[in-house]
Amino acid sequence: MTTSVTIASDVIDQVGLDQAADFQSRVTVFECVECRTAGDARTEPAVVVLRRSPRLSHLGVAHHRCANSQVRDYGPGDLALTGETELVPRVLGLPSPTGTRPVLLLAYEEEVTVTEDGGPPYDPVIRSLLGDGLHQIHALGKPSPRSPGWRALIGPGTNVQVSSSAHAWLTDGDMYVPPGWRALAEQAGEVTLMMGRLEHALLHAVTPPLMAYAEAARRGHLVAGVVDVVLR
Asked: Cβ distance 171 to 204 under 8 Å?
């Protein structure tokens, strides 16, 4: 069954033809960004809407009856990456000269890079995270600097919360924490927090290969910092 998904030229100009085509090809069932009800592009016309703000650019889908395909700008506080449905938490152990480092990864689906006024493309979430005190990394093996003001709360049970001095980035996440990882984090009193974007297939894979994270770092899609951790 074919889909009917319209994407306007000004959206394509902002995100690039490849990103636009990849997103368009994945749309089937969706939640309309306008009326917040379910839709199915296989049975009714749909449109792609690019929502932009200083902290997030997001490609969404709307019923054709609700909106036209367009670029829509939002203010600094109106569109942000904050909910448990938008950030996927995972724990990792990375080898280092002093032993295994406990890593907490918060990943979001690779959305879009955007351009403004003819400048180079950028990821507004990465830009915001750097402004909040995390650091750009290009390899997994090198320890990250500390990021004062950040804190990770893990537990009770599978609950996880992450915040900086300026924002609550994850308020109600759900994550299995192996006892071995918890012991490493408890002994260190801190964890390396990595945040960034992963391709759709990697984000939802059960156990993505470590090289997938290494490639994301090499491409500038991950930022990190050593942060305080509270285990409950």
From this structure: no
For 186-196, letters b (16+ CB in 10 Å) and e give eebebbbbbbb
Q: Where are the beta strands (DSSP E) in 11-55?
A: 29-31, 38-40, 46-53
Yes or no: say if 29 and 39 are a contact pair by the CB < 8 Å rule: yes
Which residues lie below 8 Å from residue 24, measured CB to CB, with a gap of 6+?
Answer: 5, 7, 48
pLDDT tens track, the chain, 232 positions:
567 899 999 999 888 888 788 888 889 999 898 998 999 999 999 999 988 776 667 788 999 999 999 998 877 655 555 443 467 888 988 887 777 899 999 888 766 556 565 666 677 788 888 989 999 998 888 889 999 999 999 988 888 999 999 888 888 888 888 999 999 999 999 999 999 888 777 776 767 677 888 888 888 889 999 999 999 8
Residues 18 and 15: their CA atoms lie apart, in Å, by 8
In single-letter form, the type of residue at position 70 comes to Q
Reported pTM:
0.69
Planar angle of CA 215, 221, 226, nearest 5 degrees: 100
**208 upstream amide cis, omega within 30 of 0:** no
As beta bridge partners, residue 10 has none
